[in-house]
């Protein structure tokens, strides 16, 4: 980041001694800023003369409208015998792939996909683990100027069809099965229910993982094994089709818990530039670094992770449970391979704390410079735990953004101190503010997280939304010409950011807005509580807070524990946060990416139908909340 600031000073004859100065310039002069990001990060392609057209319109601004580039060409910068990818699947599989081997596989896949009729604008979909073949398939698709979309193999039949059925992929990739928590889970029956209802997929390719690919492919129409798909083709230099900056690269999906998922289309150039900025500047990723993120192909952090190849880093892939075969498995991996960036979720950090795992006492971890956390707000105690029990001299970066922008609004900043409970600040080029209900920017108060100026990774649009009405309604209906993200947030006097939860899950007892994250931060400090979920229940003409808690084995929710929970919330948050009802439940529903889903529980409690239970990893948990007598009084 200092080198980038020096380049910006040379470019503009201005001085940027602080991050606030550098950030202000990146907002004030977006054309010069993004042009410098392109050149500083060494983007391969034809930039064109125009950097930003219609730069005041949201939506409507166009970055690099004359540019031509290819995403895969920017990631496959090397073809030597050094390591490009390391892969582990629990304790079942361990593999390595060199840059030369990755290029060779991408080349063969590219030829096979082209022979299957895939070209610019076609869609290819995958239901795959976080494995090297998934990276190679995506790169081959991108090399042709086509569009990639993915989910993890634990998605149910309806969940897959609700996503891929909307985008009509020409080719569909899947594995024969996968491992999770030591269990071998076959995909044959699921695939038979998917392929028949995905007629657009003229070719179905089965990737081996459990050794059953041939048998699975033989039982499916239009199916072939990966080996069979590649057999006619020998490796040769990868050819790259350069496409416009806004050519669709990825189709990602909203969680889908309130209906059929929205298909969010992200462009080639915007995704690449935003990720390069975040990796090289904010995460300080350097050539030869080893970048890890615990993710699946159903979460946008996978898309974020793989772009680290463009920074000349090695990808460290893991698939399976982060606690199998033992709670230390990811730290064993980190020590063995020398991770430099360790990316995970706030929930994982909290679970380590609950399990009493202290990697600092058992592992070296000397190579790790940055630990990132996302998925949900990292509680203050999570910050404490990382520095006390994992590594005292690490840069801990809580980050937040999402599927909507395939990147971050607020994230780590190497120049700034880490402050307990705060995200360090907004990303370069991101005009992030918090607004009150009447559209005024506020500091030290809670409000809506907004972005007031265009940025490169705004979606190209939604799939099957020809006039853009659904896209505009999703982000620009609340405030005219301003992106409203749907996060309930607060900018602190020091310039940091606290995310208090999703706006649509905000609690409103007595008309006062309370973020669910504020409750969880207090409740989950109590040793007997594993995790919690809070909703607002319409009751007696108002809204009351109902708190559901999942307790440790053998613990009962008696009056003493209820009082302890209420006291913790009252003293740690405020009397307004104290729930009217506290109920114990055996499970808490969550999405495929591991986020708890307050909205689905709120619908169940109010007797409404949850529109898309297939979006949940554990839909059976919803039955625990149906018709509860305790909520009738």
Summarize the structure.
The protein has 633 residues and is α/β, with parallel strands linked by helices. Helices cover 30% and strands 24% of the residues.
Cα(first) to Cα(last) distance is 57 Å
Number of helices: 20
Low-confidence stretches: none
* Number of DSSP strand runs: 32
Please state how the strands of the largest beta sheet are arranged side by side: 6-5-18-17-19-20-21
CATH architecture of one domain: 3-Layer(aba) Sandwich
* Biggest beta sheet summary: 7 strands, mixed
The rough form would be described as globular
Average pLDDT: 94
Cα-based radius of gyration, to the nearest Å: 24 Å
Supply the CATH class of one domain. Alpha Beta
InterPro entries: Acac_CoA_synth (IPR005914), ACAS_N (IPR032387), AMP-bd_C (IPR025110), AMP-bd_C_sf (IPR045851), AMP-binding_CS (IPR020845), AMP-dep_synth/lig_dom (IPR000873), ANL_N_sf (IPR042099)
Family: Belongs to the ATP-dependent AMP-binding enzyme family.
Organism: Methyloraptor flagellatus
Pfam family, one: AMP-binding
